[in-house]
Amino acid sequence: MRMSVGLHARQSQVQKLAPRMIQSMEILQMPTLALQERIEQEMNENPLLEQVSGDPMSPDDADEDSSSKDSRSENEKELVVDNDHDNKDDFERLLNMDADSSSNFDDSFRRSSNRMSEEADRRHDMMANAQSRPESLNDFLLHQLAEMDIDDEVEQIAERIISTLNASDGGYLRTPVADMLPPGHTKEDLAKAEEALRVVQSLEPTGIAARDLAECLILQLDPQSPHFEELQKLIRFYLNDLAENRLPQISKKTGFSIEQIQELRMELHLLNPKPGAAFLETYVPNVTPDIILEQDESGEYRVRLDDDRVPNLFISKYYRSRLQASDCSAEEREFIKQKINGAQWLIDSIEQRRSTLTKVSEAIVEHQKRFLDEGPEAIEPLKMQQIADKVGVHVTTVSRAVDDKWIQTPRGILPLRRFFVGGTQTDDGDDVAWDTIRLKLQELIDKEDKSKPFSDEALVEELQNAGMSVARRTVTKYRKKMGIPSSRQRRDWTLTST
């Protein structure tokens, strides 16, 4: 094999997206709240950007806002900075717009008092709405431990045990207590470690620091319970059999009747297999709809973009006036060119977002009208490519338009992606969504004879009788996704004749 080093010229085509195009796609993908933050950031970085200010409920301000919108749509929307021709035509339009304006400007840029007040209000709201940090599992246990009168060495080991517990793991002890002791520890040290573990296991929540599920459940049993011995026996020796609903085998080995085992199992269901999970920090985001869907008097659905909180932007009149100022230097003129370019791209991107999101939402609503009228069982199969073809855009544009967007409908606030579902065909050739099949599957299982529940093969036959051809592996997959146990686990042995 011969190797050589040299320079070689090679021509290739590489498709690259311009930064401004990337910005447009990012803005399309943003939900309303994220877009607000982006606009605020751009306004802080670009002094040429201004927004229509004033109370929208005031008639005078409403007229002024309307005139500003009209002015922007006529004079500014078509403004595109053309660097190839030194921007001659574009800046002439800017100068003409300024000539038509009778406003007087200062020689320096000032942030309006309304804008500063709005920013201060937003910061105040953010601080006022900030959630306080909830108490963690470890803190909760340490506070209880501090109130106990125990040996200092035992307390130190107990603190080490608590430090290893994790709420996301249910609060189980996954580290052997011996590993928490220094090398060369004695039997007395190990005895103290076991004592420390018993101390931690005596804390609330009951069942904490268990080394396995059986120990966790046994720690939660009340010794004064009339069924304490029976429950303890089931947990120690027959936990897997209970999970698999093998009640006849348990009855044969223990002598307990099927009815008695059922009652004991119901008591076990009251115990908590993950006592530490209650301290998980759950974040439930506030969902703000981006689209409002309303019905008019004739019952037709009307789509309205809920972007009232998105400010209406325009290019600063002050900087337009600076272009004709005699003291405007070349550096300042170049600076204004760049900022006008960025401001116009942002304004156009926001307008394009409004247009695309409205068209996509209207097409989705038109396709899923039965779902909105009749409910989830009437949802129809829908792919993003279908909406892309209908609207006349690329499928990736539809994907970005619906990403993290929510729509307020008569059936509640739903994510736009909820309307896109796969499906199959019935024997009659009609399309049916997988959601409809899952609902039918749930209905069949709810109505089955619990003494002889449907197997997956039987469910396939029942769906076939309903005109839905589905493979057995598909039924098994959806059954597991829906959290429905197998036929053996669903069987009620108390209904079985002996």
TrEMBL record:
<keyword id="KW-0240">DNA-directed RNA polymerase</keyword>
<keyword id="KW-0805">Transcription regulation</keyword>
<dbReference type="InterPro" id="IPR038709">
    <property type="entry name" value="RpoN_core-bd_sf"/>
</dbReference>
<dbReference type="GO" id="GO:0001216">
    <property type="term" value="F:DNA-binding transcription activator activity"/>
</dbReference>
<keyword id="KW-0804">Transcription</keyword>
<dbReference type="Pfam" id="PF00309">
    <property type="entry name" value="Sigma54_AID"/>
</dbReference>
<dbReference type="GO" id="GO:0016987">
    <property type="term" value="F:sigma factor activity"/>
</dbReference>
<keyword id="KW-0731">Sigma factor</keyword>
<dbReference type="GO" id="GO:0003677">
    <property type="term" value="F:DNA binding"/>
</dbReference>
<dbReference type="GO" id="GO:0016779">
    <property type="term" value="F:nucleotidyltransferase activity"/>
</dbReference>
<feature type="compositionally biased region" description="Basic and acidic residues">
    <location>
        <begin position="66"/>
        <end position="95"/>
    </location>
</feature>
<feature type="domain" description="RNA polymerase sigma factor 54 core-binding">
    <location>
        <begin position="128"/>
        <end position="319"/>
    </location>
</feature>
<dbReference type="InterPro" id="IPR007046">
    <property type="entry name" value="RNA_pol_sigma_54_core-bd"/>
</dbReference>
<protein>
    <submittedName>
        <fullName>RNA polymerase sigma-54 factor</fullName>
    </submittedName>
</protein>
<keyword id="KW-0808">Transferase</keyword>
<keyword id="KW-0548">Nucleotidyltransferase</keyword>
<dbReference type="Pfam" id="PF04963">
    <property type="entry name" value="Sigma54_CBD"/>
</dbReference>
<dbReference type="Pfam" id="PF04552">
    <property type="entry name" value="Sigma54_DBD"/>
</dbReference>
<dbReference type="GO" id="GO:0006352">
    <property type="term" value="P:DNA-templated transcription initiation"/>
</dbReference>
<feature type="region of interest" description="Disordered">
    <location>
        <begin position="50"/>
        <end position="122"/>
    </location>
</feature>
<dbReference type="InterPro" id="IPR007634">
    <property type="entry name" value="RNA_pol_sigma_54_DNA-bd"/>
</dbReference>
<dbReference type="GO" id="GO:0000428">
    <property type="term" value="C:DNA-directed RNA polymerase complex"/>
</dbReference>
<dbReference type="InterPro" id="IPR000394">
    <property type="entry name" value="RNA_pol_sigma_54"/>
</dbReference>
<comment type="similarity">
    <text>Belongs to the sigma-54 factor family.</text>
</comment>
<keyword id="KW-0238">DNA-binding</keyword>
<feature type="domain" description="RNA polymerase sigma factor 54 DNA-binding">
    <location>
        <begin position="334"/>
        <end position="491"/>
    </location>
</feature>
